[in-house]
Amino acid sequence: FAPWDDPNEQPLIRFKNVTKRYGDFVAIDDLTQDIYAKEFFALLGPSGCGKTTMMRMLAGFETISEGTIELAGQDIAAVPPNQRAVNMMFQSYALFPHLSVYENIAFGLRRDKLPKEQIDDRVSEMLKLTRLEKFARRKPHQISGGQRQRVALARSLAKGPKLLLLDEPLGALDKKLRQETQFELMDIQETTGTTFVIVTHDQEEAMTVASRVAVMDEGRIIQVATPDGIYEAPNSVYVADFIGEVNIIKGTAKAANKEQYYVDWGVNQAPILATSERAFSDGQECYLAIRPEKISITKGKPEKAENAVQGKVLDIAYLGNLSTYHVELPGGLVIKAQTANTRRLSRRDITWEDDVWIRWNATAGVLLAE
Ligand code: ATP
């Protein structure tokens, strides 16, 4: 059982019908969501959808207009920010420039007036956790960006919070370092068993690090699922479109067999066949969401006739490991198909303006109502 599927597991955090208003503006709209201990929970969504507001309410920097947030069974509204077992790490890191790495990490522990020995032990543990032992005496300007990020993380974890909030924690790092650091972040989260809630604009990052991803829009959570659940089984065109690349084919449904529908998509070839657990009535408007890598592309007619259509290659994007083809169908609809380049391309391969066939399985896409 994953904790969110286990009926006996108590959530660490419960948002219950939480609304946040700024004047007349509704930033969070009647939001209900559980997050479990030891989860790495990602909030993903366009700018202004309310991600930071959710974090700020958890941290206590923002009041709640309606509803309640519970942390470990306790309503947090009455608990002042510094008494919540919650810490927040900002993108800017906000390290003290005149203090050493050691002193930065020790800062909160000293403020709590812990005995020196205990502080020493705890800081050593944090230095080890974040692989910063060698840099303990340096000042922030004497270490790299990635190391500064780890100091900030060590400092946020020093007091052993139950919950760490990470607002774009890797935003200041370049792409390669960012990807490496994502794995470190996952390791550290697992080692400490702290619950992490992360806000990121980077969908790949959310998919890499998170146990579950919440996709938000205008103050609401549209879908919460594991990364592959979000990618393979989006609940709406909005989510399908937000994560990764997708073809959205609009049409009308007509029952075929059990859990299968014909989709009349206005293309002057046979209707396409789609499997769906969701029920559609005959003539109902529907959207088939299908990922480009689920669509094969061939010069010759494929053996299987199901969902095979002819078109012309408009353009090709070569991405090294992958190639994406834009294929125009009769009537003008353009479909993206993607193939893995497992060997070097040659002149015999599909090229621009070729007449091609594209094809996919009935189970390859998701049929959506909106
Ligand atoms: P971004 O990804 O750009 O950081 P976000 O999803 O984190 O966006 P929030 O910062 O949570 O978005 O803001 C949600 C909405 O609430 C935005 O439309 C924002 O303009 C509004 N908002 C945030 N803080 C205030 C405030 N103090 N007063 C009025 N409106 C606010």
TrEMBL record:
Keywords assigned by UniProt, alphabetized: ATP-binding, Cell inner membrane, Cell membrane, Membrane, Nucleotide-binding, Translocase, Transport
Record GO cellular component, one term: ATP-binding cassette (ABC) transporter complex
EC class of the enzyme, as a word: translocase
Entries under InterPro entries matching the protein: AAA+_ATPase (IPR003593), ABC_SmlMolc_Importer (IPR050093), ABC_transporter-like_ATP-bd (IPR003439), ABC_transporter-like_CS (IPR017871), Mo/tungstate-bd_C_term_dom (IPR008995), P-loop_NTPase (IPR027417), PotA-like (IPR005893), Transp-assoc_OB_typ2 (IPR013611)
PROSITE patterns: ABC_TRANSPORTER_1, ABC_TRANSPORTER_2
Example GO biological process: putrescine transport
Domain of life, per lineage: Bacteria
Short name of any one Pfam family annotated for the protein: ABC_tran
EC number(s) stated in the UniProt entry for this protein: 7.6.2.11
Protein's UniProt keywords contain NADP: no
Annotated ABC transporter domain residues: 13-243
NCBIfam families with a match to the protein in the record: potA
Function summary: Part of the ABC transporter complex PotABCD involved in spermidine/putrescine import. Responsible for energy coupling to the transport system.
Protein family: Belongs to the ABC transporter superfamily. Spermidine/putrescine importer (TC 3.A.1.11.1) family.
Subunit composition and interactions: The complex is composed of two ATP-binding proteins (PotA), two transmembrane proteins (PotB and PotC) and a solute-binding protein (PotD).
Protein name, UniProt field: Spermidine/putrescine import ATP-binding protein PotA
Lineage: Bacteria, Pseudomonadati, Pseudomonadota, Alphaproteobacteria, Rhodobacterales
